[in-house]
Amino acid sequence: GENVEQHPSTLSVQEGDSAVIKCTYSDSASNYFPWYKQELGKGPQLIIDIRSNVGEKKDQRIAVTLNKTAKHFSLHITETQPEDSAVYFCAGSQTGANNLFFGTGTRLTVIP
Amino acid sequence: GAVVSQHPSRVICKSGTSVKIECRSLDFQATTMFWYRQFPKQSLMLMATSNEGSKATYEQGVEKDKFLINHASLTLSTLTVTSAHPEDSSFYICSAEVRSEETQYFGPGTRLLVL
Questions:
Q1: Distance spanning both ends of chain A, measured CA to CA
Q2: What is the distance between the alpha carbons of residues A103 and A100, in angstroms, rounded to a whole number?
Q3: Which residues of B touch A32 (CB under 8 A)?
Q4: Which residues of chain B have pLDDT under 50?
Q5: CB–CB of B19/B9 below 8 Å?
Q6: For residue A36, which residues of chain B lie inside 8 Å, CB to CB?
Q7: Could you give the CA distance from residue B44 to residue B78 in angstroms, rounded to a whole number?
């Protein structure tokens, strides 16, 4: 089955700086890669996703890049704000397969 | 994005009792819903996949008689933890798939504490 690895496990940045979280996957058949933000005591919230037919997607301060050849994808957050502090999970799946395989999570702390 | 609700948000029960958790898709119909379990500072662990009108598919190691799942309508799935014990204490999260998007949206989670 699919195996998704995520790094780093913790990340601290100064407010205004950028944050990058990286994930790798093992199954070349995976073609859908969402990113979720989870705040303490809450469920994960979808913040951005990318499908394998594109290499990059951007939504305001958040962007995701995908390298199918290397089987890795990354989340980029620019101009970080304290409210960006949360745990971020990457995931991968195959279209139509339903199952999401999650990474182990990254705890992002934005220092004011 | 699509909205998924869960009820209750937290529950405390005595060992040996059963607890039912509801998951609802509020603004869309979900033919497929998922139940996850999350331990503190860990990732989400898929417990089962629930399809409307059919039996749930459980992941390896998850006891189907312990965690009863019912998906009787396109907007509601329930998870019943039967004869709960302290080791069942955890954060249970459901998600629902928007079929047209092939995307899962998560509920806010239910924190279960078994005394």
A1: 41
A2: 10
A3: 102
A4: none
A5: no
A6: 106
A7: 18
